[in-house]
Amino acid sequence: MAETDSAYHYRVMARAIEIIDGADHGLSLEELAAALGMSPAHFQRLFSRWVGVSPKRYQQYLTLDQARRMLRERFTLLDTAHATGLSGTGRLHDLFLRWEAMTPGDYARGGAGLSIAWGRFDSPFGEVVAMGTDTGLCGLAFAAETGPDAALADLRARWPAARHVEDPDRIAPWVDAAFRRRGEARLHLIGAPFQIKVWEALLAVPEGHVTTYSEIARAIGSPGAVRAVGTAVGRNPVGFLIPCHRALRKSGALGGYHWGVRVKRALLAWEGARADMREAAET
Questions:
Q1: C-alpha–C-alpha distance, residues 65 and 26, integer Å
Q2: Catalytic residues
Q3: Which residues have a Cβ under 8 Å from the Cβ of 32 and sit 6 or more positions away?
Q4: Confidence of residue 82 (pLDDT cuts 50, 70, 90)
């Protein structure tokens, strides 16, 4: 698939999700296709190829009941995730994910000595701002609700002593691998030791599954630090690849999301649809 086609499909899907999420009632295939200036048949094919289910079925995944269903049926015990093969590269199936963390001393220096490339990219969930070192991506921010300038400022403020250079080509292969689900995406985690532990726990949650803040706290050996875990989850700079959107409250409520609750709902709906599609294919 040509890169221009990929960017076009990302924009179509982002717009479709925005329309679906903003509607106060279920939209028919014809209504959605008309809003996007496409024929119903073409839109159905494009949407189903990307999501794996029809637009009508996908709308059902955007309800709050879907998050509660995932918590009930796909809750992941993090201390058994590694043993059951649900973590590591298998977590993203066809995506090979490698990561390493910065040392505490380097983190304390605020990124001094680092050259961080950044760029703006299309994604199925709207525009993203990405950042990366020579080691891997250190930031991936969804800009749909904040806007790209605010997202960029947010990421830059995390490593104020680094040299930030606009160079999208330098990190484009990792961003492309993340959203096209093939190739290799590398991560360079830049955070305090406690944050790194929380983010590592999130990496053990497989696609289509969810966990809770209290389960993360227990898995990292700090069961009384639920509030601190929530803060660390919210400070995760690498959206999507470090799946903080998979952390829910015990009640099944979505909770907050640094890059916007609407984006979190869309991510969970997409992953829930893909998981159901895989299960149906295996039965």
A1: 15
A2: 244
A3: 16, 19, 20, 43, 55
A4: very low
For residue 132, the cross-strand partners are 117, 137
Question: What pLDDT shows up at residue 99?
Answer: 80
Structure-token pair, residue 222: 């700090």
Sequence-ordered list of residues with C-beta below 8 angstroms from that of 95, at least 6 positions apart, any chain: 89, 177, 178, 181, 182, 183, 184, 185
In angstroms, the CA 266 to CA 53 distance is 14
Beta-sheet pairing, 163-166 with 115-121: parallel
Reported pTM: 0.76
Token code pair at residue 278: 């895989």
Task: Report CA-CA distances (Å) from 113 to 8, 130, 153, 159, 169.
Answer: 37, 19, 19, 11, 21
Q: Cα–Cα distance between 269 and 109 in angstroms, integer?
A: 39
DSSP of 142-166: E-TTT-HHHHHHHHHHHSTTSEEEE
Highest mean pLDDT among 183-187, 197-201, 249-253, 268-272: 197-201
CA distances from 3 to 111, 180, 185, 240 (A): 32, 11, 17, 21
* pLDDT for residue 66 is more than 70: no
Contacts of 194 (CB under 8 A, 6+ apart): 228, 232
